[in-house]
Amino acid sequence: MSVRIKVCGFTRVEDAVAAAKLGIDAIGLVFYDKSPRHVGIAQAQAIIAALPPFVTVVALFVNASREEVENVLAQCAIDVLQFHGEESPEFCRSFHRPYLKAVRVQPGADLQTLAARYHDARGLLTDAFVEGAHGGTGKTFDWTLIPPQLPLPLILSGGLDEHNVADAVRRVRPAAVDVSSGVEAGKGIKSPQRVADFVAAVRAAQN
Ligand SMILES: O=C(O)c1ccccc1N[C@@H]1O[C@H](COP(=O)(O)O)[C@@H](O)[C@H]1O
Q: In the UniProt record, does the keyword Amino-acid biosynthesis occur (predicted)?
């Protein structure tokens, strides 16, 4: 199966439409107000409305309250929730929506146990651990810390870009890759050229 591609952190309609035309599978919208890529409801609605069919919309939260998540779900056509903080499995599954659980990987991380705790997630998303940050840092991590047999589909993220993603796909063999900083021209501004190069690198690596 082809490696799925999610690009996260869109803030502009034109960037999301351009990325969709380049064949990405999913777009991520960041509902975390400390992120430079944070979107409000109106902005998110405009981006979602402009997308062609069959592009999955992922809403990213970091330790949000139930009310915040429910407010987004009530007003935006979200397909998948991405929990990028310390949310419990009970919290993640309580919305009865497909969800991804992100983990920031550092030496000693027990990804097997974590994947078992979040067994009903659609995937385990591995990001780099950076002190004081929750994600979107553009930093990679040691991919050998990922066990070969995980019980959940693996979504590899953390510092991926057009230059390293082919190597990542060949080495880690993830179900999907997720990128934010690595395809940007500036914070929250995606570069169509970088997205195109990223998609081409993923496709070349899986052939
Ligand atoms: O994108 C953000 O600003 C962000 C903020 C807080 C948590 C997660 C965030 N993004 C996610 O971080 C990873 C890695 O991003 P990068 O490619 O290293 O910049 C990715 O899963 C984003 O969805």
A: yes
Which pLDDT tens digit goes with each residue over 102-154? 999 999 999 999 999 999 999 999 999 999 999 999 999 999 999 988 999 99
Q: What architecture (CATH level 2) is domain 4-206?
A: Alpha-Beta Barrel (3.20)
Q: What is the pTM of this model?
A: 0.97
The domain spans of the chain are 4-206
Other beta carbons less than 10 A from residue 43's beta carbon: 16
- Ligand 1 — pocket residues by CB below 6 A? 8-9, 28, 30, 32, 35, 37, 60, 62, 84, 125, 127, 134-138, 157-160, 178-182
* Burial tier of 97 (Cβ tally within 10 Å: 0-12, 13-18, 19+): middle
Q: Which among 117, 124, 129 has a CA at the least distance from the CA of 178? A: 124
State the ipTM, two decimals.
Answer: 0.98
Which residue's alpha carbon is nearest to atom 10 within ligand 1?
Answer: 136
Gap from CA of 182 to ligand 1 centroid (Å): 10
Q: Which amino acid is at 21?
A: K
